[in-house]
Amino acid sequence: MAASRAPGEREENETEKGLRVSDKGYLNTAVMRSTITFIDGDAGAYLLLYGALPSADQLTQFQNEVMHHGTVHADAEHFCRSFRYDAHPMAILTSAFAYLGSYYSEANPSLQGQNIYTRGDKASLALMDKQIYRLLGKATTLAAMAYRVRQGRDFVTPPTNLSYTGSFLYQMDHLGEENYVPNPVLEKALDTLFLLHADHELNASSTTVLQTGSSLVDPYSAIAAGCASLYGPLHGGANEAVIRMLISIGKPDNVPAFLEDVKQRRKVLSGFGHRVYKTSDPRSFIVRKTADEVFKITGKDELLETAMALHAAAMKDEYFIKRKLAPNVDFCGLIYRAMGFPLDFFPVLFAVPRVVGWLAHWRQMMLQEGGVKIWRPRQIYVGEGKRDYVPLSQRT
Ligand code: SDX
User: Fold this and answer.
1) Does the annotation mark 330 as catalytic?
2) What value of ipTM does the predicted structure carry?
3) What is the pLDDT of residues 37-72, one digit of tens each?
4) Is 274 labeled as catalytic in the residue annotation?
5) How far apart are the CA of 148 and the centre of ligand 1, in A?
6) How far is the CA of 331 from the centre of ligand 1 (A)?
7) Where is the active site (predicted)?
8) Of 54, 57, 27, nearest to 42 (Cα)?
9) CB of 269 closer than 6 A to ligand 1?
10) Residue with the nearest Cα to atom 54 of ligand 1?
11) pLDDT in tens, 146-187
12) Whose CA is nearest to atom 22 of ligand 1?
């Protein structure tokens, strides 16, 4: 977990609550399950950002700061309103984060000086925290706006008297009824899924945020870059791709033919495989437990049978066993679908919670010893050797 530790410094093999951290740096499966049950998303977000679980006062102050920054300026609303009704919500969200960067010029190192975040003094820490609160508070508002642009509906002022996920659900589906109270089971399920998606070491989008942020661009632009990376179907777009895959398979009887197409590389098995996890993604166990709780409220999804048949067939097929392909976190799309979110909105439900992980990495980079070093990977040239120049007239 990114925190205010110096890069590379390893805490004891224990975290705050005596949680065993496996030598890969991930909470092991059993601990991950117990962790999720006793901390909620807000405390988890605080832990990622500051490296320790908050006291009651710290948690209340953190929640108030984030919820206080939920509203966006009318200009940002006009900007979001300028998208076509069928624009992909991730395109709207990515652009809206970059828009915020144009708005908060006092947060821009290019305009205010390179060291506004890296001095490490009280003023720069406060400035950094204010951007963190703004981005966390506005992430759900921008997401809800991307949802409502598509429906041609008015935007909703974010309530400050609900939880983070409660306020998000309110903005998504506010139908005008007074004293809206989100369904507590669905609110808790979304909070659990947000916590699961909050951070995951140096995945493609977190690396993108760090690579972009290392040039000392403003944090809004760095987050927009991370959002663009997460949009891809190999990364955050996989939860949408899983449902499209299950819909294309249709009935469980069609699973063997689909898996044959995958083996012939004609199709991809979305929701399976991982660059790091080669046995199972510990998050998938919690996704399944959360799904059981949600389906009790919403009723089961007819795609569930197909998903179970796919899982059973792939897990005993030599082709997938040999390639160490197991389900990853992206079958959570079945839960989002059961909760009524539109299909192309699923990557947004990954991006919103991942903002805190991106910011935790960004904050750690800004505070690292020796200041920020621009990320500049070298490449190994493997192209042609020396060749004589051939004038255009002689090139065929
Ligand atoms: C996330 O990094 C993170 O932490 C990401 C993430 C996070 O929280 O940020 O965990 C979230 O992005 C999860 C992954 C979501 N993506 C998908 O579900 C899309 C489907 N998955 C694959 O595209 C793939 O598994 C990746 C992209 C996730 C990983 O790709 P890799 O690292 O290239 O896979 P690999 O090297 O382990 O592949 C080994 C073999 C290869 O076959 P060969 O060429 O050796 O014959 O397995 C094959 C791959 O082609 N393979 C698949 C496959 N995943 C890998 N074949 C079919 N279907 C798949 N899903």
Assistant:
1) yes
2) 0.95
3) 567 889 999 999 999 999 999 999 999 999 999 999
4) yes
5) 33
6) 14
7) 274, 330
8) 54
9) yes
10) 273
11) 999 988 899 999 988 899 999 999 998 876 666 777 889 999
12) 273
